[in-house]
Amino acid sequence: MKKVIYDEKNGLWYELQGDYYIPCLKLHEEEQQPIGVWGQRHLRYIKQHRKVLYLNLLTSGKLNRYLADIDKQAEEMFSQLVKQMAEREGVTEQLKADNQMEWVGRMNNIRNRSIEIVNAEIIFI
After folding, report:
1. Distance between CA 25 and CA 60 in Å, rounded?
2. 12: which DSSP letter?
3. What is the DSSP code (8-state) at residue 52?
4. H or E element at residue 45
5. Measured between alpha carbons, how far is 120 from 99 in angstroms, rounded to an integer?
6. Prediction pTM value
7. CB-hemisphere CA count at 13 Å for 87?
8. Which pLDDT tens digit goes with each residue over 19-41?
9. Do 66 and 123 meet the contact criterion of CB atoms below 8 Å apart?
């Protein structure tokens, strides 16, 4: 028996695995882009809760680009929210210079609220 055969009917190559011929399938190559913390968080979410979306993106070769886009949107939204909330609540560099512990506490609160908003609006949808 041949190790590899080509079936002209469906245009696929098959490789001998034990007693059976298995199709030689290969995913599309996609340009790899760096994925940050937001993209990784969304990846975990879609793997667990949106399996069809995950598999469609994976098999079409669009997963990395999709996650990079989600990561970029989430990071921009997070930065904008932190900046707006800090301005609205009077958390300034002057407060940082005068009372560092107060500034750290308030900034942590702002960052945590911003993370929750980004998670609800972009990551876990």
Report:
1. 13
2. E
3. H
4. helix 37-49
5. 32
6. 0.76
7. 6
8. 888 888 775 566 788 999 999 99
9. no
Structure tokens at 76: 């921009």
Cβ atoms 23, 12 nearer than 8 A: yes
Beta bridge partners of 5: 14
Q: In degrees rounded to 5, what are phi and psi of residue 120?
A: -70, -35
- Per the document, the length of the chain is 125
Which residue in 76, 110, 70, 68 sits closest to 90, CA to CA?
110
> Dihedral, CA atoms, 33, 35, 40, 44, nearest 10 degrees?
-10
Distance between CA 25 and CA 14 in Å, rounded?
Answer: 9
Does 117 have pLDDT greater than 70?
yes
Paired tokens of 49: 């809760």
User: Which residues touch 53 (CB under 8 Å, ≥6 apart)?
Assistant: 46
Give Cα separations from 99 to 12, 93, 113 (angstroms): 69, 10, 22
Domain ranges in the chain? 1-30, 32-123
| Between 79 and 29, the higher pLDDT residue | 79
